[in-house]
Amino acid sequence: MDSYQLKNKLANIFAVIAAASLLTVLVVVVALKIHVNSDAIAPYSFARDIIEHIPIWHWQFPAPPFTFPDYAVSLFIVFFLKQPWQWFLGSALAQPLTLILFLTFRKDKTGLTKPIKFVGICYLFILIFVLGSIFFNHAWIESPARIVVLVHHMYAAIMAILLFLWTTPENNLKLNSKLFIFYSALCFILAFSDLFFMVYFFALAFARICVYQTTILRNLSWLVEMIILFLIALLGIYLNYRINPGFSVQLHQTTPLTTFAERLSGFVHITHLRGVILFFILPIVLLSLYIKKTQPSVEKNTIAALSLGCIFIGIIVVGAGLITAIYTLRYLGIYFPAMIFIASQLTTNKLYQIAVQPIISFGVILIAFIIGIFTLHNIPERFLAPEFSTLYSCPDFQQQSRGGIVVATYWPAKVLFEQNNRQFRLLQTDPTLEFIYHWIYNPEWYNPQYMQSSQQSSKVFFVRYQMDPNKLQKLSLLPDAQSICNNEMIMLPLSPKLTQLAPVLKETS
Q: Given the DSSP bridges, would you call strands 425-428 and 405-408 parallel, antiparallel or unpaired?
């Protein structure tokens, strides 16, 4: 290796370190803005149950169980990062790295080395994210920003794009090939884990048919592959429906009856004008840039199909929202990884080469350092949802709750449980204190056998958040009732009278 090659190699290594540093800082800053809640911490709780050999047979999953990749990735992370805040920041990097590394190692005709591609795609990721945050504000936080949080359908979106790029008509897979068997197994697992994977992947597949048109008809083997994968995905969703009680619970949720005009007004209110531009006009603009009357190419057709597929997905999600009156922009999270892929194809080799110049790398390191100094402080306290900050920092609760019973509604329950290292038995209750609220919950958490504290206590702590005010009033009137943590909790000794007021406590007997 001569001096010129050594210089280039060192420059590339420095550039990779710089890009990775700035990406990490950005991801952590965004994660701290979103915070962890009871939904987001569920993969940590599940992974910890696995590692600590706590029975999971009665774990209650939501309709999409997110078993793969979300829970699988979380299990790997918890092996190394034990504290909830460490896990949360580690898991925040999982989805961005999955996307960036796939695009880095994807075969293309650019001739660029892997370090140069990695650096360039990292900078594209950062640039698009920052610009999107500036121009689209609320809509951006509700959808693309979820790439730093597990179990929000973003992994399904990323995996749908990956499988879309792997299963091109040009590949000419044989149905009995090992690769097609692998794709089939992956499709089954992903559809079982998150039904939105099926929406994303087959919307993209249908868009590819629209773009290729007559070319597809000459390649019937690809159509057969897609039909088989579609049936396999349906089988995965059906299996989820059969074995996952949470699927039926969420399927039968009802919404208030409203007129079509009210539902349309609700959609506009949720998305704002900038959200409409982001999720509908932008894909159309991207599509128009690539559907040209020129000689078609694989890359051009792929970009056109991806843009058109995003439009189809937007129509599906909004159409479902108009029917159910439920609008969740995170279901459109696929737009962000799609933008990253399209941008990586648009960027010229010259720009990639400029990105690894030492002067650029030095400036990026300096920016990452400055941002880190001013924003990354008190992370263990800041990663939690701020509405429960009084509970997390309450010394009375931390000292007296060891070995006791904590009764809380869904949103504070798991976060409080994990933040206090499972030092008490947890009952996740409905607001009326009548029964255990089993949504994303393991009943073994109130089993004293698996409590981290060696001592046991008869004290019961009721977290006031979202509980029935009438029940709280009756509890506070009991003779031994004490309000603690700035009146956020009621502490009582376990007694027959208390059990009558809070029947959920009978579950502990």
A: parallel
